[in-house]
Amino acid sequence: RRTRRARFFLAGAAVTLAVVGGASFALWPKGATETADAPSAASAALDLGGSLQHGAVLAAMNNHVTSGPLTDKGALRACLRGADADRALLGAMNVVYRNKQAVLVLVAGGAPGKITALVLPADCGPDNPTPLSRAEF
Predict the structure, then answer these.
(1) Helices (H) and strands (E) in the chain, counts
(2) 84-100 burial by CB neighbour count: b if 16+ within 10 A, else e?
(3) With contact defined as beta carbons under 8 Å apart, do 72 and 123 qualify?
(4) What is the reported pLDDT for 14?
């Protein structure tokens, strides 16, 4: 009997978290970003080393704080178009990738339920759209 109550409570908590998480996605305007001063945002960049890991993807989810040229929504969209990843923006954050300043960007995946994670060079644009790393989760 006690086990049934615990399961019921855990199921209710999971549903609550799912609803709150879904609402935050729905309320965040498509492509919206927050800006931060370049020095503080760059110093807070997550160091990925040389690999893209699940923890980094979770840290970037619903995060929209970047610095540099990709702070501009138009520049970010142009870069994503060039990288063939112009889909719904799920998150973006400054990172260091292989000792270079970069931006981890999450977009809706190519298939339902998937997320595409791209590590873009900080100077990414239509002339330089090649991601440093790309993965599907």
Answers:
(1) 4, 7
(2) ebeeebbbbbbbbbeee
(3) no
(4) 43
The residue among 111, 110, 102, 107 whose CA lies nearest residue 131 is 102
**For residue 106, which amino acid is it?**
L
Q: Rounded CA gap, 88 and 104, in Å?
A: 14
* 124 backbone dihedrals φ, ψ, rounded to 5°: -60, 140
**CB–CB of 95/47 below 8 Å?**
yes
Q: Who contacts 85 (Cβ-Cβ below 8 Å, separation ≥6)?
A: 105, 107, 116, 118, 131, 134
Q: Give the pLDDT score at 32.
A: 43
Which of 111, 103, 112 has its CA nearest to residue 133?
Answer: 103
Is 59's pLDDT higher than 70?
A: yes
Which residue from 111, 68, 125, 128 is spatially nearest to 92, judged by alpha carbons?
A: 68
Give 41-50 pLDDT, tens digit per residue.
444 677 777 7
Per-residue pLDDT, 44:
61
The candidate with the shortest Cα–Cα distance to 87, out of 69, 105, 66, 104, is 105
Determine contact, residues 135/88, Cβ cutoff 8 Å. no
